[in-house]
Write a structure and sequence with these properties.
121 residues, mainly alpha, 4 helices, globular
């Protein structure tokens, strides 16, 4: 029952984000607001193991298509998801284990969210 409730909470949280309702639960960094049309920042919860794995698979397929410049931005987006998941994981694990690197990993993660976590198009 608890797992069911947690899954419902995850879906509700995702729905709130999709509806552009501000949500700060679980964020390690400040939420980045869009700078206007064409700037689509991603929330912290977009960087999951599943998203990174999907991005890695997309990169495998894109390698054969990169002769066409139309795929360059797709490759950049895939790298972004992989890098973001790695930085997020480092930050969470460092904080959880009270590592001496926690502050540095958190800083790296928040800089990434602020400056690099957006869809290229």
């Amino acid at each position: 029952m608890r797992r069911y409730a947690l899954n419902i909470m995850k879906y509700l949280h995702l729905m709130l984000l999709l509806l552009s309702v501000p949500s700060f639960a679980g964020n390690l960094c400040d939420v980045v607001k869009s700078k206007g049309e064409g700037h689509w920042p991603l929330p912290e919860n977009a960087f999951t193991k599943n998203a990174a794995s999907k991005a890695a698979n997309e990169l495998k397929l894109l390698v054969h298509k990169l002769d066409d410049s139309d795929y360059y931005l797709e490759a950049e987006n895939a790298f972004m998801y992989i890098r973001g998941y790695a930085l997020k994981t480092y930050a969470h694990n460092s904080i959880k284990s009270k590592s001496k690197f926690a502050k540095s990993h958190l800083t790296d993660w928040c800089k990434f969210i602020k400056n690099e976590a957006y869809i290229r198009h």
